[in-house]
Amino acid sequence: MNKRREATSEDGVLTRIGQAIMLHRAGDREEARNRLSALWHEIGPHGDAFHRCTLAHYMADTQDDPRDELDWDLRALEAAEGFVTERPDRGGSAPGESSVADGPGPRHPLVALRAFFPSLHLNIAADYAALDRTADARAQLLRARASANALADGEYRQGLRDAIDRLELRIDRAAGRTA
To answer: Which residue ranges make up each domain of the chain?
Structure first.
């Protein structure tokens, strides 16, 4: 019974994040930001890494100031990096592989957190570009490209690669370089 209650609680957090995202996409940026902020405080600094990463990732999109957007994107990256660790599994995985993220709270597949990395680095690159921090933006683009290349082939990977290319072109144009 406790496992069922935990699963419902887990689904509830992701559902609430999804509802806030829908509000944002429908144009109610302030209400989305308010709900995500309340949920961020509810989850707390030691809450589930997947939830913290997801929430901060979307909270960044609700910000009006590019510096605030960067702060939230960095929080999302910190949450993902803090819990994605390589360690020998004590169970059925091959040596050196781990199928879960470490940390307090529920466990999530590493692949779910790892799939965030290209998007997180891309968002941070865009934040730096908006703040005219070109060198930082380019460094994040390199990280975005490397982590996208580590993903399995598919639409998500290709979409990320295309977005990385578009941002790189935009940065080059802003710097007066031609491609």
So the answer is: 1-83, 115-179
